[in-house]
Specification:
Nucleotidyltransferase, domain 5; 5-stranded mixed β-sheet; about 20% strand; 6 helices
Length: about 210
Amino acid sequence: MHWKMLQKILTDSVWPGYQRSAPIVKPKIGPFLGKIQEILAADKQRVRKQRHTAKKIWKELQKAGFTGQYTIVKDAVPALKKPSKEVFMPLLHLPGEAPMDFGQALVRRAGVLRKVSFMAMALPHSDAMFVMAFERECTETFWEGHVRGFEFFGGVPWRISYDNTKVCVAKIIGPRERELTEGFKQLLSHDLFDPHFCLVRRANEKGGWRGW
């Protein structure tokens, strides 16, 4: 890292990031962005099936003199459809709720850089977090990570949220319904917590703790 960049980071409590000195020039689509916005605004008054697709908008722009390719319009339309105001969704974690995940990281051990698996479990309501590294993710390390985590927290959370790891899930049978593995059933029967599974490809449901 260049020393000037490091100096900026140390000077500002919040890193300002990079800022463009001038907007990006879009010579082909730029003059027609206003036209696209007019079409999208008019579409709000129409039923969904009668609204313009990106391809229909492209054909309308061609009539107005646009010479660019369809892909340029297809990329521009979603950006113009985005809401102009920021939207904030409150995230609430009740006491005793714990997201859990396995991940991988590079560590240097005895001078050798290698990849290891690690388990992370958190109690976001109280800002407590437990992390433990393992050689690999499997049923045995999954069990041990839970046992050590419960010892660290001094109890068992009433609900633990998971993604759809094969260590827990033998089969996905519905949006939230899962056929559990025998190993996970044994853990549940011993510790008696409520498992909660994220929707497929929606691991972000576990919340912002993943960025700690």
